[in-house]
């Protein structure tokens, strides 16, 4: 009986051959499922935190599929989709999503769920952001005090949200206090903890990591602007060999079984779901 590593080698090979431009090769961060219907998904935090594994394995069993996850923030995910290197992206950058659909190289935009952003920082809160009237006001206070702030600086959805907040303040952040990590959410959060700085984190990562971060606490939350909705987009029909399977995957995420998996993710371990499903988001909007 072939081992898991042996099977994964051939799944990667199949994925490499299934894309006409041959660009995927062995770039999969992980593979979920071992079916013949191969497709690739680019995303960041849902993959890092394990949600994509749960969703990918459930879909793979139902559809006879193999999901290749390519770890990428929202900006890089858009590039991968535009270049036809992946079939699906799961991102949180609404304006860029709408633009991609308008330009025609992405379709099937599907709301799959949401979390929110928190501003975390040293418990002593040297910039006194707790009690700010808005997230933008919290950013103004950090800049005024030149309080150490960590930015991902990677064109991810989180970085885009951060820059939108700076635009609201009219401030162009720069200087020794403003530190760019160029890394993913978990690594950036760890650096903020180690160097006692402020950071804009998504709530899902915070729930999973807060037990290891005693020198950070949530100092600001609740601004509606900090709601963080995730959408999926796929290749246009026929654009890549995996486009049809990718569209089926998004349909699965929006279905009742997919939404239950999203809403329940994390409950057993943390006593609460760390993502909210799309139905709850739409209900709250109304």
Name a few traits of the molecule.
286 residues; 2 domains; alpha/beta; 21% strand; D-Maltodextrin-Binding Protein, domain 2; single chain; 11 strands; disordered N terminus; 13 helices; globular; 44% helix
Task: Please give a structural write-up.
The protein is α/β, with parallel strands linked by helices. The chain folds into two domains: 4-114 and 229-285, 3-Layer(aba) Sandwich (D-Maltodextrin-Binding Protein, domain 2), CATH 3.40.190.10; 116-227, Periplasmic binding protein-like II (D-Maltodextrin-Binding Protein, domain 2, 3-Layer(aba) Sandwich). 44% of the residues lie in helices and 21% in strands. The chain contains 13 helices and eleven strands. The chain has helices spanning 4-18, 45-48, 51-63, 74-82, 94-103, 135-145, 157-169, 185-194, 203-209, 243-254, 256-264, 267-270, 278-285; strands at 30-32, 37-43, 65-71, 88-91, 107-121, 149-151, 178-180, 198-202, 217-220, 227-234, 276-277. Strands 1, 2, 3, 4, 5, 6, 7, 8, 9, 10 and 11 form an eleven-stranded mixed β-sheet that branches. Helix 7 links the parallel strand 6 and strand 7. The longest helix has 15 residues, at 4-18.
């Amino acid at each position: 009986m072939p081992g898991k590593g042996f099977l994964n080698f051939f799944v990667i090979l199949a994925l490499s051959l299934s894309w006409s431009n041959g660009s995927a090769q062995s770039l999969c961060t992980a593979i979920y499922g071992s079916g013949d219907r191969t497709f690739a998904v680019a995303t960041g935090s849902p993959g890092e935190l394990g949600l994509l594994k749960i969703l990918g394995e459930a879909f793979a069993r139902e559809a006879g599929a193999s999901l290749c996850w390519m770890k990428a923030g929202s900006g890089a995910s858009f590039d991968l989709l535009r270049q036809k290197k992946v079939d699906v992206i799961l991102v949180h950058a609404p304006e860029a999503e709408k633009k991609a659909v308008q330009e025609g190289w992405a379709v099937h935009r599907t709301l799959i769920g949401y979390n929110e952003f928190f501003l975390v920082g040293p418990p002593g809160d040297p910039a006194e952001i707790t009690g700010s009237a808005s997230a933008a006001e919290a950013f103004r206070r950090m800049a005024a005090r030149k309080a150490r702030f960590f930015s991902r600086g990677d064109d991810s959805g989180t970085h885009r949200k951060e820059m939108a907040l700076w635009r609201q303040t009219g401030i162009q952040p720069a200087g020794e206090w403003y530190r760019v990590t160029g890394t993913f959410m978990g690594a950036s959060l760890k650096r903020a903890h180690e160097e006692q700085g402020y950071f804009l984190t998504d709530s899902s990562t915070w729930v999973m990591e807060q037990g290891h971060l005693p020198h950070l606490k949530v100092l600001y939350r609740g601004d509606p602007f900090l709601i963080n909705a995730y959408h999926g987009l796929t290749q246009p029909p026929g654009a890549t060999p995996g486009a049809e399977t990718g569209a089926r995957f998004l349909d699965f995420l929006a279905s009742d079984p997919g939404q239950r998996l999203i809403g329940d993710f994390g409950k057993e371990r943390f006593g609460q779901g760390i993502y909210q499903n799309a139905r709850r988001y739409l209900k709250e909007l109304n």
